[in-house]
Amino acid sequence: METAVLIAVIILMIGVAMRWTHVLNARHDARIEAYRFSDPLPRPPGLPDDTGRRAHHTGADR
User: What is the gyration radius of the CA atoms in the chain, in angstroms?
Assistant: First the structure.
């Protein structure tokens, strides 16, 4: 009997944690969506068009 109660409590706590994580993620997503980010800074003159990591490696298409 005690084992069944323990398993039920563990399953219930997992469910509560899943729901809480879902609610917190939804709030976080709403906060990110509501925030107005500034425009990106202009590219300084003299930089190549692609400054990503792959652009600096030779044979990056392998």
Answer: 24
Which residue in this structure is represented by tokens 């993620």?
25
2-61: pLDDT as tens digits:
999 999 999 999 999 999 999 999 999 998 888 777 777 777 777 766 656 665 566 555
Q: DSSP assignment, residue 62?
A: -
Cα→Cα distances 55→28, 50, 59, 61, Å = 33, 6, 10, 10
Q: b/e string for 1-12 if b means 16 or more Cβ within 10 A?
A: eeeeeeeeeeee
| CB-based contact 8:14 (threshold 8 Å) | no
Residue 34 near residue 27, CB atoms below 8 Å:
no
pTM: 0.51
